[in-house]
Every structure is written in C-alpha cells, then in structure tokens.
Amino acid sequence: MMVGNWRGTLTVEQFVTPGSGERTVSVCNETWGMTAQTEGRFSGTFQAEGVCAHSGTMFGTVSISGAITGLTFSAFVGSPGETSTCRRVSGDGVYTGVLSGTSLTAQTAERTVCAVTFLTFDRSYSLSMNKQ
Which pLDDT band, with edges at 50, 70 and 90, does 119 fall under? Predict the structure, then answer.
C-alpha cells in the first residue's frame, strides 16, 4: 500500500503576531521513498527541497480505512524548533491525515513563542503526496 516512491508538496503557512501580523506561505517539493511496511506501520526516507531543504527518515501508520496517524519525520521540516530564545508551546510535529487510493494528505501545526522579541509564530503544515 505505502511501499514505493511518492512525490508532492509541503505547504508551510506562518502567521506572526504581534506587530505587522505578517503571513507567509512556502510551498516546497517533497519526495518519499517508502521501503518497508508491516501491517499498517510504514517507514522510509524523505527529501524536501527549496526553502524547506531537509532529508532524513520517516515513519507512520495507516489503517485499513486509510487514516494516517503518527506520521513523523527525523527533521521537522519548516520549523526552527526550540532555540535559546524561542520555545514551542504547542504542536509536536506529528502529522495526521488520509490515504485515498494513491493520494495522501496530512497536516500538523505548532506555536512558537520567542521571549526576546515577544513574537508568536503560528505555523501550519500540509502535505499533499501522490504515489508514483
């Protein structure tokens, strides 16, 4: 079901408050190489390009009904994560979504608060992938 090559996009939407309330959207190409699946648990590698450039390993679970849960990447692409001045106050980088035929969509979100600049970053992440 999941084993094989996948191509698609990762869309990262960011909203910064207070201040200008700037909203930015980045769309990055992403590829997956799913190498193993045992029952519903799958694993493989990923590569994101452009401003999202990262690569690594990934794993998740797909149910018989097509529900995707626990979709986790070795690098949380598009997120600066925890720094010395910023901390994630919500979100864990784990995606949930749906597999329908050879198409998969999944989402996650996070909120990061930076103490020095008093800015809050709300980010949403959307994957849209198709099996090749």
Answer: confident
pLDDT of amino acid 102:
97
- Per-residue pLDDT, averaged over 109-124, amounts to 88
Domain limits, the chain: 4-131
Is the whole-model pTM more than 0.85? yes
CB 5 within 8 A of CB 24: no
Residue range 4-131 in CATH 3.40.1000: no
